[in-house]
Amino acid sequence: MADLNVKINDLRLKNPVMTASGTFGYGLEFADFVPLDQIGGIIVKGTTLKPREGNDYPRMAETPQGMLNCVGLQNKGVDYFIGHIYPEIKDIDTNMIVNVSGDSPESYAETAGRLDVLDGIPAIEVNISCPNVKEGGMAFGVTCAGAASIVKAVRARYHKTLIVKLSPNVTDIAGIARACEDEGADSVSLINTLMGMAIDIEHRRPKLSIRTGGLSGPAVKPVAVRMVNDVARAVKIPVIGLGGISTAEDAIEFLMAGATAVQIGTANFLDPRVTIKVRDGISDWLDRHGCKSVTEIINCLA
Ligand SMILES: Cc1cc2nc3c(=O)[nH]c(=O)nc-3n(C[C@H](O)[C@H](O)[C@H](O)COP(=O)(O)O)c2cc1C
């Protein structure tokens, strides 16, 4: 059987399939359905310095081949995470990675600093791309200077693997990825959701409480593959690809486009075992094509 191990900086993944933040809780919620230790990594819910209520309901709307959400980073804050959730998840035998958000360079850095000391968290994913919060979030991810300011502040306080999650709601995602690399990011992940809107025509109002939301699911995949390829051609650090993956074939497209690993988000809502199925499908594909290691197909485009 082909070797599925990959590396993101110092982070060793037993296979390249991870779960995306906000779609897999803290992992524990899925433990009855999926052997968590067989997933390459679990990116837990978005975590902020102070607790956040999130946005009003409705927060979700189905769209063709996808969904819109405006959850708005609802969470109980980093101290609650450290005191109550970390003890429950720290011994899960996979890479438990915390997704971090904030409203200023200082708040991102403070949250990252508090996570730096946790032995069971080998990496963080800094979200500079959430479209559903008024302050901070995506605002930092849409300019090179904004992205650089967050990465610089976090890098000063965080000493383990630092992944930066990029926004697709930009014209030059490669430039923003380079700005993150220049400030010391170890990896970039992309894409977060694409800004969208849906309308309830009977009531003549937006379907989501805050008018707009983030589009995810199969509908976004071609946009995501293109952006992963743009970024992989522009930076030397490893790229993590996501956006619309629900099958092994989808994941292989991202690997060939230049991703060292992938994440699966919305598809977990339809099939909680999708990560394991995608891992097995990648393994079968590699065996059928005579590949000894998954690394043979990463960034392999002619
Ligand atoms: C309900 C929901 C909540 C999400 N929450 C977060 C979050 O807290 N932090 C983050 O970086 N991304 C968040 N995302 C974005 C996903 O992690 C992912 O980037 C996006 O959905 C694209 O992948 P997919 O098409 O596989 O879902 C969320 C997505 C959904 C659908």
Automatic annotation (TrEMBL):
Record EC number: 1.3.-.-
Cofactor binding mode and count: Binds 1 FMN per subunit.
Pathway listed: Pyrimidine metabolism; UMP biosynthesis via de novo pathway
Active-site residues from the entry: C130 (nucleophile)
Molecular function per GO: dihydroorotate dehydrogenase activity
Membership in a protein family: Belongs to the dihydroorotate dehydrogenase family. Type 1 subfamily.
Name of the protein: Dihydroorotate dehydrogenase
Organism: Prevotella multiformis DSM 16608
Classification lineage: Bacteria, Pseudomonadati, Bacteroidota, Bacteroidia, Bacteroidales
